[in-house]
């Protein structure tokens, strides 16, 4: 028996990000300098807007998650911001 505990219903955000990428649900719409605009379709079909705002130096996503969500993690793995 494995000592590893699995919590059903709670999927690791990094794992979910990988799944979003491999199923083609992230669309990068615009990259202009450090401005990044993208959209991502969530599990229940709604589309979230996300990206990086260089004026505010912040990443954002319109989904209800307050922490670094899987959508943003998916975007981070395909984009880079110059610092
Ligand atoms: Zn999100």
Give a structural overview.
This protein has 83 residues and is an alpha+beta fold. It has one domain (13-76). 20% of the residues lie in helices and 30% in strands. The protein has two helices and four strands; from the N terminus they run H-E-E-E-E-H. The protein has helices spanning 13-22, 70-76, and strands spanning 26-32, 35-41, 47-53, 58-61. Strands 1-2-3-4 form a four-stranded antiparallel β-sheet, with helices on one face. The N and C termini lie far apart (47 Å). The structure holds zinc ion. Zinc ion binds next to strand 3 and helix 2. Zinc ion is lined by residues 48, 50, 61, 63, 65, 69, 71-72.
Strand line-up of the largest beta sheet: 1-2-3-4
- Average pLDDT, all residues: 88
Helix and strand composition category: alpha+beta
**Each distinct ligand:** zinc ion
Q: What percent strand?
A: 25-35%
Q: Can you summarize the main beta sheet? A: 4 strands, antiparallel
Helical stretch tally: 2
Query: What's the gyration radius in Å?
Result: 14 Å
Number of domains: 1
Would you identify the regions where 5 or more consecutive residues have pLDDT less than 50? none
Distance between the termini: 47 Å
* Helical amount: 10-25%
């Amino acid at each position: 028996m494995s000592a590893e505990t699995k919590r059903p219903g709670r999927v690791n955000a990094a794992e979910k990000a990988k799944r979003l990428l491999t199923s083609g649900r992230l669309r990068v719409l615009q990259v202009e300098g450090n401005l990044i605009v993208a959209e991502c379709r969530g599990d229940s079909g709604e589309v979230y807007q996300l990206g990086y705002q260089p004026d505010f130096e912040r990443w954002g996503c319109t989904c209800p998650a307050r922490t670094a969500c899987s959508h943003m993690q998916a975007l981070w793995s395909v984009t880079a911001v110059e610092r």
